[in-house]
C-alpha cells in the first residue's frame, strides 16, 4: 500500500476517529450506561479538564459516534449517548481490550 492508498484507507480513518487520550475512556463510560451527563463523565475521568473533555466529545459527535442531548430544565442538562454507528464499536473495542491484556 502506498501513501495515496493509505490516505483513503478505512483503518486510517478509524484510528483518526478513535485517537485522543480520553476517547477510549469516554466510549467505555458510554458503553456502561445508556446515556451519561457531562458532569458524570467528567467525574469518572481522572485529571481531564472540562475544556479537553468537551473538545473530545465534540470530535466524537462530529464523527457521528455519539449524540449530544440537551434537556431544557432548570438547570439545563446535557447528556451524551452512543449513536448506532458508535454502538458498533463495542465488539471492536472489547477485542482490543482482550488483545492488549494478552501483551503483558
UniProtKB/TrEMBL annotation:
GO terms for molecular function: DNA binding. It comes from the Bacteria. InterPro entries: HTH_HxlR (IPR002577), WH-like_DNA-bd_sf (IPR036388), WH_DNA-bd_sf (IPR036390). Residues 9-104 form the HTH hxlR-type domain. Keywords: DNA-binding, Plasmid, Transcription, Transcription regulation. Pfam families: HxlR (PF01638). The keyword Transcription regulation applies. This is Helix-turn-helix transcriptional regulator. The lineage of its organism: Bacteria, Pseudomonadati, Bacteroidota, Flavobacteriia, Flavobacteriales.
Amino acid at each position: 500500500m502506498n501513501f495515496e492508498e493509505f490516505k483513503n484507507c478505512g483503518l486510517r480513518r478509524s484510528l483518526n476517529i478513535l485517537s485522543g487520550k480520553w476517547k477510549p475512556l469516554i466510549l467505555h463510560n458510554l458503553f456502561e450506561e445508556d446515556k451519561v451527563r457531562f458532569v458524570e463523565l467528567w467525574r469518572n475521568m481522572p485529571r481531564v479538564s472540562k475544556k479537553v473533555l468537551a473538545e473530545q466529545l465534540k470530535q466524537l459527535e462530529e464523527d457521528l459516534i455519539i449524540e449530544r442531548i440537551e434537556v431544557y430544565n432548570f438547570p439545563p442538562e446535557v447528556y451524551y449517548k452512543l449513536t448506532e454507528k458508535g454502538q458498533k464499536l463495542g465488539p471492536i473495542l472489547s477485542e482490543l481490550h482482550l488483545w492488549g491484556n494478552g501483551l503483558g
